[in-house]
């Protein structure tokens, strides 16, 4: 893996460096808080279903806010939309401090929902803006770095978050999360490069589509744009397909805390392994499949297979370190498919509707993930963690098979 192109991009492009740093810091805070809240939920309730409900609240709120966020990202100044989303999340993140026991756990759930609304504004807007913050030749490297930022801070933030929560208390983790949003806002505010492409001529079809600002019209614009283009449709459905089985992540809290008896530290270790896989997956796959349409589709298909096989091995792990290896392998595939589909969409979508395309994309996957987490939580409540995990892997394999059949014409045509 050659690091020189990535280091050169960070050194030469100050706008991208600021965005990359903002996302690193914000994601680190997120995972400090997530590990602490999952530990609190399991501690006060003793129920995997309650822990899964926290993740459902996160993903469900994101999915509901996404269509509106897409309209805003294509209509208003993207820089200030991202800064506003960050600043609004600072006091919300501090609300976690008031969640102490079973009677006040609802505060953490409400705060998580509001934070997800902020994320629904920030993250698709960031993805839509990225092609305007780098030169065209830099876009593949920029995408891999941004894609890896989530995995990097999941690995670092989850591991440190588990240790900090265990050693210093969960309140420290919550304060770190709030501070991360303030720092992210300051970094984004300092970006001077335009977040938007030069407007097209008013008579163009894309410009006309950009004028449709209603939520329903926004989604219809994206559907019409994807209709008749098998490659674009496959890219739009890739994350959603992955989301079908991704509810299995709620079981990481059960394995780390209960199966291996390691509490918050065990949760942190497994989430950190997930993050490390998501970090390295984009780098590894780029060198194997390249950036052609055919390569992107084949890479996503392989990523589905890697995820399913590795998670099928998780319940067989006798000790926590081996379980972490299985999780790491699964999210090599997860991180790779996310970055490949994102890059493909950025390259194929005009700037005028890119905010709506990414909000549609993120909204679909979070909606699917919400349902998947509900299923995983119900299975974990009724059956053993092993049976619950293998059931989710089976769902993932069925969904992936359907996507591969749908996308097959793309790689067959070369």
What does this structure look like?
- The longest helix is centred in the N-terminal third of the chain and has 32 residues, at 14-45.
- The chain has 16 helices and no strands.
- The chain has 414 residues and is mainly alpha-helical.
- It starts with a helix and ends with a helix.
- It is globular.
Provide the gyration radius in Å.
20 Å
Summarize the helix and strand pattern as letters: HHHHHHHHHHHHHHHH
Q: What overall form do the CA principal axes indicate?
A: globular
* Amino-to-carboxy terminus distance: 26 Å
Number of β-strand runs: 0
For the record, the count of structural domains works out to 1
Class by alpha and beta content? mainly alpha
CATH topology: Growth Hormone, Chain: A
Fraction in beta strands: under 5%
The number of distinct helices, counting runs of at least 4 residues, comes to 16
Q: Could you say what the CATH architecture is?
A: Up-down Bundle
Biggest beta sheet summary: none
Average predicted confidence as pLDDT: 82
CATH first level: Mainly Alpha
